[in-house]
């Protein structure tokens, strides 16, 4: 991304799009009962509260009544119906990192299959976005967690802690290409969740080879444990490699969430918060997802940067757009064109 001399002036920046992830699938309800929903009605109310606070993108997971994260497509469909009615202007973004199980006999044995994971493209009503990981990687979400972060939570149980420490995200090349094909065929926009520059480079290659033709919405996920850590040098190196036509959100975890989001607001980028990323405000003080959104709205206001409403967020994300060719996609995103046969030197758009 290129920063002109006046790039930090808020009047020259897009309005801020705030993503909220208020369903914290890694936590158990007792970890923060005031903010972790259990029933569908509570899930919908969380969305309403976050939208009224200023969030316009809702990152979605859903729980069963026993408190465990649901793998049932029907449960997600039920929630999507309620959300479409309650928060029609929000961008509904289903978290693709969760695996889905078909219902019925033998479901538990099938939940890791690639075909089952592709069923995200069949959700009804369909979401606006599904997040997608690129390149199989370690996702040790506890590597950066401190004793204070997990104090009094289920993560103090060694067996749960070890489960998350050893977690990986399967996202091999064949699966990624097929998943992108199915999502775009059904009019669902992929939102790329990227750990580092190598994954961004893979996305660029997918575009250059015609495997994805559309707007480029990215989240840099700085959570350590196989991903970048929340180091400002990591952030700026990643930003430098992102093309100007992309839309970039910054994400991290625990008490790094607020300072990283503050940087995102100042840089003209976009933010993500909510109990999936952190339970904490000030040290030792829990903070609800909606209050985290309100905090970002206040910071944006202090900096003079407007916050996008639902329609504005859809325009910024280019929801519903797809492109007809590799050349068009590269031009729209701000990537240099592919080299033509016999062409020498650096390529550029005329």
How would you characterize the overall build of this protein?
By secondary structure, the chain is an alpha/beta fold. The protein has a single domain, classed as Aldolase class I (TIM Barrel), CATH 3.20.20. Helix content is 36%, strand content 11%. It has 13 helices and ten strands. The chain has helices spanning 40-53, 73-86, 107-110, 114-117, 147-150, 158-165, 173-185, 197-208, 232-241, 257-267, 289-303, 310-317, 326-333; strands at 18-20, 57-60, 91-94, 129-133, 137-138, 168-169, 189-194, 217-221, 247-251, 270-273. The strands form two sheets. An eight-stranded parallel beta barrel has the order 1-2-3-4-7-8-9-10, surrounded by eight helices. The protein has a two-stranded antiparallel sheet with strand order 5-6. Helix 8 (197-208) links the parallel strand 7 (189-194) and strand 8. It is globular, with a radius of gyration of 20 Å. The model is unreliable at 100-112 (pLDDT under 50).
Descriptive labels:
350 residues; alpha/beta; TIM Barrel; 8-stranded parallel barrel; two-stranded antiparallel sheet; 13 helices; 36% helix; 11% strand; globular; BKACE; metal-binding; transferase
């Amino acid at each position: 991304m290129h920063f002109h001399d006046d790039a930090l002036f808020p009047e020259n920046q897009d309005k801020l799009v705030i993503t909220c992830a208020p369903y914290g699938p890694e936590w158990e309800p007792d970890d923060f009962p005031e903010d972790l929903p259990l029933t569908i009605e509570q899930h919908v109310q969380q969305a309403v509260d976050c939208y009224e606070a200023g969030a316009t993108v809702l990152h979605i997971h859903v729980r069963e009544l026993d408190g465990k994260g649901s793998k049932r497509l029907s449960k997600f469909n039920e929630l999507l119906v309620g959300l479409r009615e309650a928060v029609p202007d929000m961008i509904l973004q289903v978290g693709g990192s969760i695996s889905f199980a078909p219902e019925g006999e033998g479901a538990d044995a099938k939940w890791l299959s690639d075909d089952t994971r592709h069923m995200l493209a069949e959700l009804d009503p369909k979401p606006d976005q599904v997040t997608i990981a690129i390149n199989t990687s370690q996702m040790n979400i506890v590597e950066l967690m401190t004793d204070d972060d997990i104090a009094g939570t289920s993560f103090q149980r060694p067996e749960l802690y070890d489960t998350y420490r050893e977690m990986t995200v399967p996202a091999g090349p064949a699966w990624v290409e097929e998943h992108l094909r199915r999502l775009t065929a059904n009019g669902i926009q992929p939102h790329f969740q990227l750990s580092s520059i190598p994954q961004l480079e893979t996305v660029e290659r997918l575009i250059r080879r015609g495997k994805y033709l559309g707007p480029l919405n990215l989240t840099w996920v700085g959570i350590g444990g196989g991903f970048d850590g929340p180091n400002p040098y990591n952030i700026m190196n990643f930003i430098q490699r992102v093309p100007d036509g992309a839309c970039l959100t910054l994400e991290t975890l625990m008490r790094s969430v607020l300072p990283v989001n503050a940087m995102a607001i100042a840089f003209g980028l976009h933010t993500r918060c909510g109990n999936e990323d952190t339970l904490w405000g000030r040290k030792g003080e829990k903070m609800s997802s909606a209050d985290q959104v309100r905090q970002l709205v206040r910071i944006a206001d202090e900096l003079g940067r407007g916050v996008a409403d639902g329609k504005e967020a859809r325009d910024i994300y280019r929801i519903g757009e797809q492109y007809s060719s590799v050349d068009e996609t590269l031009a729209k995103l701000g990537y240099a064109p592919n080299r033509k046969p016999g062409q020498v030197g650096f390529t550029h758009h005329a």
